[in-house]
Structure of Putative membrane protein:
Amino acid sequence: MDGFIHSMDWFGFPFFGFGMLFWWLLFIVIGFLVYRDANERGMNGPLWFILVILPMIGIVFLLLYIVIRESKAEKTPLEILKERYAKGEITKEEYLRMKKELEG
């Protein structure tokens, strides 16, 4: 550990580690209280519970999307060099010299 708090550390970003447990418990408790209040008033309790929990489920899916999405493939230095040579930005001698430096 380098002394900094990172988003993937246990105590980092509020949606990881203990923070994640806290937010889940908070949403479930609020959902239960809304459910109970809705039932006492003769409203549809399960529907209100679902409406309270739905944002948390959305946050989970957002986090999953961020974690498993494909990142853009970055070009290697050799590919960039080939593109520069193809565009005419560098001469053949510069290209061969730089290619030798990159490969060697």
